[in-house]
Structure formats: C-alpha cells, structure tokens
Amino acid sequence: MVGKVHLRLWQRLLPFLLVLLLAEGCSRVPRIIVLEDPLTAAEHVELGVAYERKGELDLALKEYERALRKDGTFYRARVNLGNIYLAKKEYGKAREEYLLALELRPGDAEATNNLSWAAIFSGEEVDEALARMEAVVSGPGGRQPICLDTLGVLRMRANRPGEAAEAFALAETLCRQAGAAPRGGVNGAPPCPEEVLREIEDHREELRRRYP
Fold this sequence. Notes:
With 212 residues, the chain is mainly α. It has ten helices and no strands. Helix 2 (41-53) packs antiparallel against helix 3 and helix 8 packs antiparallel against helix 9.
C-alpha cells in the first residue's frame, strides 16, 4: 500500500522534477524553481498516513501541515496532525489541533476522545475533557468501547472510582458482545479489536490498584 502511494505521488511530481533537472544540466538556462505544489490536500494526507505507518512522524507532520495550508478546513488533516503531536508528547500542540478539529465538527467522538488523552497524559484540563466525553457518550453513537474506556480513565483521574468502574464494565461488555456477534459486529457496529479489550482490562486493573 505504501509503495503504491509513493508511486502515484511521484508520478504527479515527475514532470516538475524533470524541469528542474533540465535546468540544472544547461549552464545557459536560468535555474527554475517550481513554486506551485502539485499535490492536493487529500494527497498530502495520504502521503502523511504512509509516512506515519512507517514510523516517520516528522515527515508525516510536514505532510499534514501542507494539507492544511491547502485546505484549513480539512478535518482529517487536523486530527492526524494532533495525533502526531500526541505521539511526540507535545500535548499542548495536540490539544490545539483537536480543538480546531472540534470547531469543524462539534461533538465529534474521535476528536473528543483524542483530546481526552492529551488531557490524561498531560494532567491538564481533565475536568473539561471529562465534560466533553460525558456529552459524547450520552449522545447518539457515543456508546463505543473505546469512548467508554476513555471516559473511565477520565473518571478515575477525577477521583470518581465508582463511576469509572461502571464505564469500564460497560466498555468491556460491549467489546465482548461485538467479538461474539456474527462477523464481529453488534447492530452494524464494527468489531472490537483484541487490543482494545486488553487496554480496557489494563485500565480496570489500574483502577483496582488505585482504589483497592
């Protein structure tokens, strides 16, 4: 997949690179600089995802920034950029990107969930993140194992162990139901990955250690 992405994007760039090479090879031809970016915002995001999958976070970050220079309202580029900052432990920058994403899609579950983890990891704005996640989980489509697990962690950080235990229990129940349903889905919902179930179990164990 990554190879196909690079091939397609290089095919778009090839004519511009040939112009540069020809200019370099003739001493009497002035140096030509191509100022126009031939890739679309979506293509920059596609390339960024390819870099991200290879663990090349700095290159992915640059592609998401280029996508946003092309289209500042590109939700996926904004969230992906926030994810890069989160992975680099730059929590303040991650928070800024997620808040901008939420301006584009108010109440969005993914952006709210990731904003919550920026709060959890940094220890800042936990109460605000908790309020946002409570609203998402109580809304349509918010009862997802991943969101409920995040809600449980936020409640645990806010010293609400009983409510945290409820969130973890519901998250685990829904996750196991998804795994047991035909083709792994419940009412059309996607299957729950095994790593999500393990994460829920790890957080329940953390809760038991914190509040024996």
